[in-house]
Amino acid sequence: MDWLSAIRSFVVLADMGSFTKAADIVGVSASAMSKRIDWLEKQLGQTLFIRTTRQVSLNENGMQFLPNARVWIGQFENMLEQLQGSDLKPQGTLKIAATQAIGSSVLMPNIKRFLEQYPDLTIHLNVLTPGAPPDLEHDLVITRYHEDFDSAAHKGTRLIDYQMMLFGAPSYLSECEEIKSVADLASHKMLLSNYYQKKGGIILEDGTVFDFKNYNFVSDHLDAMMKAAVQGMGLIFISPQYVAREIKQGALVPVLPNLRSEVKQLWAYYPNSSFTPYKTRLFIDELKRSLGS
């Protein structure tokens, strides 16, 4: 047994929460995976997991050890990169968190191309609650810019600027009087995420605030929000990129096309360590190339 194999196995097991699933990713048997974890816990002199018949989860020791384990693996991968240069191929697991909207519309097309190019890599895409800050449980968190993000814990890089616009279903708009100004919106129901329901409004391009006082549906479930908008339950403020399919199909149309939010930024956040894993940097570069084009 060696430290590298044991710590790699620890990180994968922490991500998967299952000896069987983790063993499949690492390419060993479940019993071999268990032996690696037992060896690591013996060397450290403490247990790292809570084991039940249904699942495996980190205990307090494991949660404290995981960020350091990720950093150590990252340092090793960077050492290999420096030695092997362009011959290095990314492998292992890249754990990403993003909201449903970003995951579906921004990340999935890029993930498909990325995995075709690097078949030895596995990507785990988890759902991030809108407005939630970056965490240290993921290699990458793709979300809006956080002015108060912890720079001691994270590094970040801007991916793209965007603005939100107002959309509605043609069937909904045909049944009401023509909307000619922001003042006309007072009588219309809004469809909101939990984040904007709590915020209570959105800053517009001209610096004024549009208050969300009249709303009838609140959800962080993207599919539910889209269905609500398409079914004519109300109007929705959202980035055009997130509803490109619905716009193309004619299911949603812009309302007051010149009404836009202030410019917002989409960022990629990752743990602030001396070494950023090669696979993390590759995926960020892929996103920047794709979104920049």
UniProtKB/TrEMBL annotation:
PROSITE patterns: HTH_LYSR. Residues 1-59 form the HTH lysR-type domain. Transmembrane segments: none annotated. It holds the Pfam family HTH_1. Keywords: DNA-binding, Transcription, Transcription regulation. InterPro entries: LysR-type_TF_proteobact-type, LysR_HTH_N, LysR_subst-bd, WH-like_DNA-bd_sf, WH_DNA-bd_sf. GO terms for molecular function: DNA binding; DNA-binding transcription factor activity. The keyword Signal does not apply. Belongs to the LysR transcriptional regulatory family. This is HTH lysR-type domain-containing protein. It comes from Pseudoalteromonas luteoviolacea DSM 6061.
